[in-house]
Write a structure and sequence with these properties.
Layout lengths: L4 H34 L8 E9 L10 E8 L1 H19 L1 H4 L10 E7 L8 E6 L6 E3 L2 H32 L1
Parallel strand pairs: 3-5
Antiparallel strand pairs: 1-2, 1-4, 2-3, 4-5
Helix pairs in contact: 1-4
Length: 173
């Protein structure tokens, strides 16, 4: 069975189209990750929050690196935690009457990819929650760097697919 030249022309256009579509999907995924890392995700309707009282619990971090996870408190959590600490402290004063109070239930949120200077935990971290009830991703250079990989690969793949489609169109004339 032989393949005619006409069969090859359609294949070039089909491959070019699939490269353009695949590149566009990869580009969109990269753009989504970059928007999450830079904080532009708030424009896309995602929840953006600034956390305080950051605790990274990582002593091996060098200057300028990113900590994979830290814990922080939103302003609402800070207010609730202060009220809880005050309740426990007041209860400790009445221990002779009421008995020992329950320990304070402190609420903290896990934050991924927080920038760290290697010595001190950051004072505040701004992060984006991608899905409702999902994980929080800090606005950091590492997230932007990870997002640039599919962004650039997607742009290059779509451009190559467009070039293949154009060349297939020229050969068909």
């Amino acid at each position: 069975m032989s393949v005619s030249a006409a069969g090859r022309r359609g294949g070039g256009r089909l491959k070019g189209t699939s490269l353009v579509v695949g590149g566009a999907v990869l580009f969109a995924a990269g753009l989504f990750i970059v928007a999450t890392g830079t904080g532009l995700s708030g424009l896309l309707g995602m929840r953006v929050e600034t956390f305080g009282r950051i605790d990274c619990q990582d002593t091996r971090t060098e200057k300028g690196q990113t900590v994979w996870h830290c814990f922080g408190e939103t302003p609402a959590q800070q207010r609730a935690n202060e009220a809880e600490r005050k309740r426990v402290a007041d209860g400790a004063l009445r221990v002779h009457v009421d008995g020992m109070p329950e320990p304070a239930g402190i609420g903290r949120t896990r934050i991924l990819f927080a920038d760290h200077d290697g010595r001190n935990d950051p004072g505040t971290v701004t992060a984006t929650q991608v899905t409702d009830g999902g994980r929080w991703f800090a606005h950091s250079s590492t997230v932007v760097g990870y997002g640039m990989i599919p962004l650039l690969l997607g742009a290059g793949t779509a451009a190559w697919g467009g070039y293949r489609m154009r060349e297939a169109g020229r050969r068909s004339r």
